[in-house]
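Fig. S4 source data, part A: sequence.
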Amino acid sequence: MSLRLSTVILPVRPWHEGGRDQWVRAEKLGFHTAYTYDHLTWRSFRDRPWFGAIPTLTAAAAATEQMRLGTLVTSPNFRHPVTLAKELMALDDISGGRFTLGIGAGGNGFDATALGQDPWSPRERADRFAEFVPLLDRLLTEAAVSERGTFYSADEARNIPGCVQQPRLPFAVAANGPRGLRLAAAHGQAWVTTGDPKLFEEGTPEQSLEAIRGQLAKLDKAMAEIGRAPEPMEKILLTGFTPERNTMLDSVDAFVDFAGRHQELGFTEIVIHAPIPDSEFAADENVFEEIATEGLAQLDS
């Protein structure tokens, strides 16, 4: 598969004060997909503006025509499969079948306690994710679903007429552990990673590549265990969380070097964050646009 370049637009700008313009610009720049985080807030943005993912993506679907849209990622932290499925079906319809659901198990950030609950243990997050994904899959592919689970249930839940994309919109499953990788193998049209979080602060690019190579091997093993061929599973790298996070957007050459090394590992999509001043995603807007318009061409030359 050829390498695609996508972007993440964090929902931090009011729609009529630059928010809409970012999505329109992303399409004009030629990005394959524009994603957003599906959080109630996120890390250093907790006391800054932050808007909801589903309404933002709905507005983006109306403001764009061809670029794909998606979440990186939705999680069970504050979502239920029944209500989420209904919103996703509507998004797929409004976008004309351009929506991809990035989905992960969630973590211990602000989302984990915003509804008043205690944070779940890693085991409970994995248990919930193992119920959440298969039920959501059924809800998006069957007209009526009833299921009684430990954490999530449905009682004659209807999703008519279903997704524009058939049999349902694609899942991009973020996972590194064995249970999550099995879910990706069974239900995902794509797999998502941010690299090895243990190498985020002090690791080297070489160590990061080796760690990701190990993740890919585990994914291949999970797919082999259920009899699924490694292709055409797409492999997505969400950047900004590897040792090169502070340098890979310094220039087109720096990006091409980074993307090329990960393309060699088998990645089919690289996702870069749209710049946000005064944040961990600060970057030169001009370089960002040059990467969008020239990066893949240089990579293929």
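Fig. S4 source data, part B ends here. The CA atoms of residues 101 and 211 lie 25 Å apart.
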